[in-house]
Amino acid sequence: QVHLQESGGGTVQAGGSLKLSCTMSGLAAKDNSMGWFRQVSGEKREGVAGISGNGLLRYAEFVKGRFTVSKDDAKNTLDLQMNSLSPEDTGTYFCAAQKDHMFGGWILRWEFYAYWGQGTQVNVSS
Length: 126
What we know:
Elements: E1 3-7, E2 10-13, E3 18-25, E4 33-39, E5 46-51, E6 57-59, E7 67-72, E8 77-82, E9 91-98, E10 115-116, E11 120-125
Parallel strand pairs: 2-11
Antiparallel strand pairs: 1-3, 3-8, 4-5, 4-9, 5-6, 7-8, 9-10, 9-11
């Protein structure tokens, strides 16, 4: 059974940094697609950053230049380095995975991922 576990969330002041990590079991990170999504209560889940199984990277426009997503196939982990954080980045961050690769336009679409972690909370204060 595929299991994903996020860690690294917390509270940080505006302008600060956090690093989120996702550890996966039951499915190899290598050659499969993984991504980060965030959600605020009462709002829809939105794509943040992801890597397809064949190596394509996608970032949401609102995080370009601030966030960096990386995958470590040896450790079977997906990380998200978040810099220059603002209160608008506050939310629950989820790690997701899907077997094989996917079209570039699907990487940041939550409905195309089959496996999900429970989420980790990120709070950015003014």
